[in-house]
Amino acid sequence: MNNLNHSILLFILLIILSCSNKTKVDAQNNVSEIQSSIKYFSDSLLMTNNDILEDYLEKYQSEKCGNQNYTNKQLKDNFKGIKIIKNIRNNAQQDTVFVVPSFNYCDDGESYVFYDKSIPRLLTDSYCCNPHNLFVIKDIDEDGINEIGIYYLLFKLCK
78-96: string of b/e by CB count within 10 Å (b at 16+)? Predict the structure, then answer.
C-alpha cells in the first residue's frame, strides 16, 4: 500500500511538472511568433526598422492578455498604408501615422501609431481604421499641441 501511495504521488508530480513546462514552451513560441510578425510588419509593410513597433509593444503589450498573432498574409491584406501629417506640435514638421492591429486579446480595436514615439498611440474600439481617416485640428485646449480628429466609416465601407 505504501508503494502505491508513492507511485500515485510520483505520477501527480510528473503531470504537474510536464504541464508547467509546456506552458513555458508555449509562451516562448508565442513571443517568437509575435516578434516575427513585428519584423515582417516593420520590414515589409512600413519599410523601416522595427524600433517603432518594438517601442509600441514595450509600452502597450500586456503580459496578462495573451499575444494575438497574425500570418504575414493577414498583416499584408489588412495593412492600410501610411499617411504623412503635418503640424501636430505646431512646428510645421511632418510625422507619419499608420494603423496597427491589436497584438493582444485585451485591446478591442486597432490603434493609430506615429513614427514620433513621443506621441502616444490612439487606441480605438474599431476594426475599421485607416490612416487617411485621421486629421489635425488647430489647438483647442491651448496646450501648444494641435488636436487629432478621427472619423469613422460605416463597417460596410471599411475596405
Answer: ebbebbebeebeeeeeebb
- Measure the CA–CA gap between 83 and 16, rounded to whole angstroms: 51
Q: CB-based contacts of 66: which residues, under 8 Å, 6+ apart? A: 30, 104, 105
Number of H helices, E strands in the chain: 3, 6
Set of cell numbers at residue 141: 485646449
Q: How far is CA 20 from CA 14, 16, 26, 74, 85, in A?
A: 10, 6, 10, 31, 48
- Tens digits of pLDDT across the chain (159 residues): 566 666 665 555 555 555 443 333 344 445 678 888 888 998 899 988 778 888 888 888 877 888 888 999 999 999 999 999 988 877 777 889 999 999 889 998 999 999 888 889 999 998 889 999 999 999 899 888 889 999 876 655 565
